[in-house]
Amino acid sequence: MPEAPLTPEAFAARTNVSRETLARLTAYADTLVRFQKTLNLVGPATLPDMWRRHFLDSAQLFDLLPTGPEPLTLLDVGSGAGFPGLVLAAMAAGARRSLDLHLVDSDTRKCAFLREAARAAGITPTVHNARIEAVAPFAVDVISARALAPISRIFELCAGFLEFGPVRPSFLLLKGRTGREELTEAANGWKMQAETRPSITDPDAIVLSVKEVTRG
Questions:
Q1: Is the Cβ–Cβ distance between 196 and 169 less than 8 Å?
Q2: pLDDT, tens only, 40-56
Q3: For residue 26, what are the CA distances in angstroms to 12, 120, 142, 146?
Q4: What kind and span of H or E run contains 210?
């Protein structure tokens, strides 16, 4: 029997976010539903359970963000509907963590949505309306991506950021059922320290944390 859709209140209970953070995310969700009518932001079949399929799925990365000096610079690649970047930024604001969020997407209309969703949620990211390989590299701490490309391709697209700045960025990736195969393939051309854990929203999916990514 299918699980009942996750409610915003149940999401808050699962993630232990504050009422303020839930209000930010609810404003984001409302904006998503509004823009979904004209933009293909998420699969239509996922909307009835979007708090599980998209918000909780993204939120599971929050505890994997590195600790240390702040602000923490997060580069979210192929942002589209804003997952996971906007969710992580809202949670960071609620936890009084300083997060410098950069959202990257080549679709102009999706970038307009990202700006409006961020405004509604009280978040102030930098939105780059470009392909990631066209963005001039800058120092980042973490690169996140969800449903973007195979792992080896993500590394290739973000290669310019790997050598820029005093700290080599880590990756937080949400991958589906092919994630482990992609990781094996990526190891043929890249060296890395990778940790995987099961996704809490999909038994076939994994959460991937990768550090020290270099060619080789």
A1: no
A2: 999 999 999 999 999 99
A3: 11, 9, 25, 20
A4: strand 206-215
